[in-house]
Amino acid sequence: MDRYTSHYTNRLDAKGRVSIPAPFRAVLAKDGFEGLYAYPSLDAQALDCGGHALRREIEALLDSQPVFSEERHLFSTALNGASEILKVDPEGRVILTDTLKSFAGVTTEVTFVGQGNLFQIWEPQRFRAHLEEARNRVRALRRQ
Predict the structure, then answer these.
(1) Which of 15, 75, 108, 142 sits a CA distance of 20 to 30 A from 98?
(2) Are 131 and 27 spatial neighbours (Cβ–Cβ below 8 Å)?
């Protein structure tokens, strides 16, 4: 499968490393990306993460905007200017930078959440609240 699905919670170790779930590492490996592309989400207090496929989607979004337009500049600043490429070690672990951890509110644990074309990294309690809100909103939408 080449999509990120499900969610997993892992602890940061004493050195601040966290293991990327094996199913997510498999998608990254198929994508051929050696690291992990990560940036603060535009829609949540979480990190959006992925590989080459995510980078291509961002480039397509930027290319859809007129060259030198304010919109293109804003998207590029938010997505490229705030992004980081994290190194994945041989055991499939990454070290989240202080900037990324601070944005997401991460301290000792993270929840990896599949979003299909990308995955997100959440502080676990924030994710549980977000998941409950998402379920409630979906229920309301279904009733309409």
Answers:
(1) 75
(2) no
